[in-house]
Amino acid sequence: MNIEVFNKEGKSTGRSIDLSDAVFGIEPNEHAIYLAVKSYLAAQRQGTHKAKEKGEITGSTRKIKKQKGTGTARAGSIKSGVFRGGGRMFGPRPRTYSVKLNKKVSQLARASALSQMLSQGSLKVVEDMKFDAPKTKDYVEVLKNLEVVDQKSLLVSGDHDQNLYLSARNAEKSRVVNVNELSAYDILNCKTLLISESAAKSLAEKLA
Questions:
Q1: Which long-range contacts (CB under 8 A, 24 or more apart) does 60-66 make?
Q2: Pairing between strand 12-18 and 2-6?
């Protein structure tokens, strides 16, 4: 599948790139996308929540009233969760929310997301960008030229370019990720997906 390549000025370079049908032209697998997004969002949770339970509360263990004859429920400790200042019953404990995702399912999810974006006309291929110095103004100018400055956009670069990353860091509604960091959630969480030529070739090798 051939698609034209745009430059930083937002104009066609006159060249086209052949995108792999095995990555950009498959029938999207919605269940694989669901599992990948679920795994990604679960991994964002810290899981550091903690509440003190009965055994962790500082206080006396003296039996606070006699067992029978009070007319109320029996109670053995002031640290019980039924009393003010007592421990919480079955409170949250530190845990991991990570969901295991098989490598092939992850690859299928990314390929499905890429194919979906291309079929919707939300994917553009741009030539590899290099910035001499980190400058947000220059990156925003590129977004304006590509007519995506007011949209939520994601640029996938072939390799890590620190100047490019820093230039896009403060740009509103825009992100830059390395091809090795790209997830199905990232792809679907943008209005327009911008892929550099080197990233497109790398994705074809990784996901085919």
A1: none
A2: antiparallel
Segments forming the whole domain that contains residue 83: 46-56+63-96
105 and 82 in a single domain? The answer is no
Tell whether 130 and 109 lie within a shared domain.
Answer: yes
pTM: 0.82
| Per-residue model confidence as pLDDT tens digits over 168-188 | 998 888 999 999 999 999 999
Cβ 153 vs Cβ 192: under 8 Å: yes
- Phi, psi of 152, rounded to the nearest 5 degrees: -80, 115
Helix (H) or strand (E) holding 16: strand 12-18
- Domain count along the chain: 2
Span 68-96, pLDDT tens digits: 999 999 998 999 999 999 999 999 999 99
Instruction: Indicate if 121 and 198 belong to the same structural domain.
Output: yes
Q: Which residues of 42-58 are buried (b: 16+ CB within 10 A; e: fewer)?
A: eeeeeeeeeeebeeebe
Q: What is the Cα 173 distance to its own chain's centre?
A: 15
Q: Which amino acid is at 173?
A: K
Distance CA 39, CA 86 (A): 36
Residues 125 and 52 in one domain: no
Is 185 in contact with 88 (CB distance < 8 Å)? Answer: no
What span, in angstroms and rounded, lies between the C-alpha atoms of 125 and 128?
9
